[in-house]
Amino acid sequence: MTQTHGTPPATEGDSRRRWLILAVLSVAQLMVVLDATIVNIALPEAQRSLEFGDSERQWVVTAYSLAFGSLLLLGGRINDLFGRRNSFIVGLVGFAAASALGGWGPSFEVLVAARALQGVFGALLAPAALSLLSVTFAGSADRAKAFGVFGAIAGAGGAIGLLLGGVLTEYLSWHWCLYVNVIFAIAALVGAVLFLPRKAEGGHRHRLDWPGTLLATSGLFFLVYGFSHSETHGWSDTLTLTFLALGVVLLAAFVWVETRVSHPLLPMRVVADRLRGTSYLVMLIAAVGMFGIFLFLTYYMQQTLGYSPVVTGCAFVPMVAAIAVSASVLGAPLSARFSPRILVSAGMAISALGLGLLTGIEVDSSYVTGVLPGLVLFGLGMGQVFSNGIAASTSGVQDEDAGVASATVNTAQQVGGSIGVALLSSVAASAAEGYVSDNLAAAQAAGGDPAMLAQRLAEGAALSSYHSAFWLAAAFFAVGAVLSAILYRNEIPNHDAHGAPAMAH
């Protein structure tokens, strides 16, 4: 059984304070997660307003992902060195300031700079939130429930971003897709000042591992940029291959250095633990596959079914509800009875089935029969993957490593998302081209109105691209289900934030 280390029983006041802290951390987490998708909805209007070209548009998204993804490990170690509460507050203030700058955004250059600054402060904020959650609920009977809530927000944040982005863009302006973060940040900042304890919250004064920091930051930068570059220039492009190769080499050198320095940026004990290491892999795979939902289902509903941004956002609400029920309502009782091996592998399999159902969409499919069943199944599966995967990713980690362990799971999700967008976009584009080349001659031989011919080919090519993306995403989840069943032990972890987790059969 897990040692209690002499911790006294929690009073009713302690329990209430924990839930208030969870509310604060959840607001911050939602702000960071939805920012990955909320701006996508606003991009067309921002492009018209600031008059920048299609070739420049990707930088509004890429600037955020590059800064966020490459600096997460550094942000996590700063948490451990200078204190989680301090890092959380600085991250909130910085993120709010960067969002205000982007909302004001008088030019394309200012908007891109603001998005990069959001990524910088997000890299400090995200690991702070998760590590604070881990230590706040350490040894608490409510730990599984708290991580269920946090996991639901992590899984549903992208869909919430689509809904909120659509509403703000349609009824206010694209500027509010950035200004809204200021509101979230102020609410979280007030709560942080009032409820986050000042004592025993980090501040382990070791020297920063500068060689490891340089290698990790540059390696992750090149890796994320390489995947982003492949979206527009293809996988055979020289720069794409160069950036990806550099990223892999630098990250390999980073791992080598970390085994030889006295105070590593990422101690290998964090990832070498079987429970945590498997969870990082699971979260990476889940992030790769889930973009099949957010990216291509958004295209399908807007371009094929003709939904407005607001209606498209509303169409994702059942998925958000399914994630919330699966992670928050079912998460705690299930995790008390079943191991991560069972729950995560089942969640992966259910999500794969949901994506498989979505491969049946057609040009004239109805939302209720064509889209909704797959969305709900996907959400139910993701709720289990996120609640259990995130909880296990910080399980049993030493207090001085809580920040970098939290950063590692965020890094896995960010890198997975970059892989997912690039890989699924590439497969979708190839499928569309293949459909046109396979069907063009037959369609021309059949004759008819050229405009109708072009429309039918375009619709068929679009559907072929969506189907291919959903099948590939489903394959990722299926592989994730198999790996979860193999790599996780069939044991229920008794989580302990002060050392390795004890296991209960």
The number of E-state strands comes to: 2
Low-confidence stretches: 1-9, 497-505
| Rg over C-alpha atoms, rounded to the nearest angstrom | 22 Å
Provide mean pLDDT, rounded: 84
Determine the structural class based on helices, strands and strand pairing.
mainly alpha
One letter per element, helices H and strands E, the order comes to HHHHHHHHHHHHHHHHHEE
End-to-end C-alpha gap: 11 Å
Shape: globular
Report the portion of residues in β strands.
under 5%
Number of separate structural domains: 2
Query: Which CATH-level-2 architecture of the largest domain?
Result: Up-down Bundle
Amount of helix: over 70%
Spatially, the strands of the biggest sheet line up as 1-2
Give the count of helical stretches: 17
The biggest sheet amounts to:
2 strands, antiparallel
CATH domain topology of the largest domain: Growth Hormone, Chain: A
Corresponding CATH superfamily of the largest domain: MFS general substrate transporter like domains
CATH hierarchy, class of the largest domain: Mainly Alpha
